[in-house]
Amino acid sequence: MKTILKLLFCIVFLFTTACNNSKSKTIAEHSSHETHWSYEGETSPIHWAEIEKNSDCDGNRQSPINIIHKLTDSVHGKSDLKIHYSPSTFIQKVENNGHSIQFNFEAGDSIHYKNDTYFLKQIHFHEPSEHKINGVIYPIEIHLVHVNKHGNITVLGILGEEGDESQLFEFLESFLPLKNGETKTIHQKLDLSDLFKHSDDYYTYGGSLTTPPCTENVSWVVFKHPIILSVEEVLKLRNNMPVNNYRNEQSVNNRIVEFNY
């Protein structure tokens, strides 16, 4: 009788252990296969709100938008935007983060916007552009991301069209190609002031990050006039990023877009 009881105990123990191991394995497998956002297929922008559960991607103040000029509120006179960029600011590094080519900056460049100071953290690129002006999609859009001491974000969006070669882009692209996940240390000075030759005319609105978690604490400044870069420079960037790394147009809803000139 004792032998039978011992045998039954062993069977129950082995069964319980096997179940627990199987359950642990299932959890581990699920964890290692978590869905991550991308720009194509089942994880493309139209699915971000589904797969990024704790994000703002289904919010009412999302970016990018199509800016219709005749529907904007015009603001003429003193600008709320002051750009303080220095030719002695250093690029720290460049990385291919799998979504874009991103240049990170050391402390130096900043902007003053709506009575607060925001410091330049990084610039990255989208091809084609995420924002539209009167329905026009540009070949490229540059995002210059600035953060204040409270963690609020102001992004300067600069559109680009194809034409003559750009010395700035020749310098930036000298660090390419970069494979997905690869990083290069740069630590060289860079003057970004050429990007703002037409900085007097720009649109502003309250929106979000254009990538998950789509946080809605972003002030957008989108310049009306595009910069010029060559076809070859556009293509070189494109070859180092996912195809069509842009988010689809979001509803303006009740937001006011201002045109500053």
TrEMBL record:
Keywords from the named record: Lyase, Metal-binding, Signal, Zinc
Signal peptide extent: 1-18
CDD domains (alphabetical): alpha_CA_prokaryotic_like
Keyword Lyase listed: yes
Listed InterPro entries: Alpha_CA_prokaryot-like, CA_dom, CA_dom_sf, Carbonic_anhydrase_a-class, Carbonic_anhydrase_a-class_CS
GO MF annotations in UniProt: carbonate dehydratase activity; zinc ion binding
Record-annotated Alpha-carbonic anhydrase domain positions: 35-261
Reaction catalyzed: hydrogencarbonate + H(+) = CO2 + H2O
Cofactor: Zn(2+)
Family designation: Belongs to the alpha-carbonic anhydrase family.
Its job: Reversible hydration of carbon dioxide.
Listed name of the protein: Carbonic anhydrase
Organism field: Seonamhaeicola aphaedonensis
